[in-house]
Amino acid sequence: MNDEWRTISYRKAISALKRQKKPITSYQEAIKIRGIGDRTAEKIAEIIETGNLRRLQHFSEDDEVIKKFSDIWGVGSAIAMKWYAKGYRTFDDIIQNVKLTRVQRIGLECFDDLRERIPRDEVTEISKRVEEAACRIDPKLLCITVGSYIRGKPTCGDIDILITRNNTDGKTSSGPFLKLLNTLREQGLLTHDLTKHQEENATSRYFGICKLPGGEKYRRIDLFTVPFNELGAALLSFTGNDIFNRSMRLLARKKKMKLNNHGLYKNISRGRGGDSLTEGTLIAQRTEREIFDALGVPWR
DNA sequence: TGGCCAATACTG
DNA sequence: CAGTAT
DNA sequence: GCCA
Question: Cα separations (Å) of A80 from A3, A99, A272, A288?
């Protein structure tokens, strides 16, 4: 079921509603709001008049089951619905009857913990341990905790750490990366691997699960290595949030450019599907400021 | 009717 | 490749 | 889902 855009649309409508200063009291008021159309305004009107939405009464426990299945790491809507179609309704059904993939087993094992948000202080503590380990391997490694943490949120869904190294001496961060992962595993900080990455690429990513020694809960952690000259593009992309990223990339697209986690490119021609046909020319990647300027966006 | 709040890396 | 993830 |  591809309700991706419907979901996004509802989210947009919700945030538009939250922005309203006065309560909405009618269909006419609701439909004036940008992002709320006929269908949503109808639903709002029904809630105003009757106090609830009939449609929601039909929202059954079945939907809850599919939702819960897809909350397992490694299980998306397709697999969740497949399991449902086979008649499975509980985690126990799944464990008994399904040949789970390695990551799905981990997702299930850590299910409860991974649903919890992580207090900011704990993210700080975990980041510090990663940074110390990295520094012992190579003092010039630079670790930056990005994601919601760098945006100053009081809690985070996971821990995202970007690792880079000033490469003017010819070395990069990709070499020490595997060593760092091994060190963190030996320390017991990393408890489960969700990705087994291939070779030592210039840029590589690790997804896993960690737990502070004496800590209460398993936490999702992502580690990325980034070439030093791409740091700006990487920061922009991993700082988010998602909506901000997408809007920046859409802006780039409208200007016949392309923005990704490696950099900003110009002179892009795109096919019908929106995929770029030409490589384009790299015009900015080293700092966020460069990219903002090249896109014509006021800096912060 | 079709684009939108993207583009890309792993897994099996 | 489709699916899932960021 | 919304919008052009």
Answer: 14, 14, 31, 39
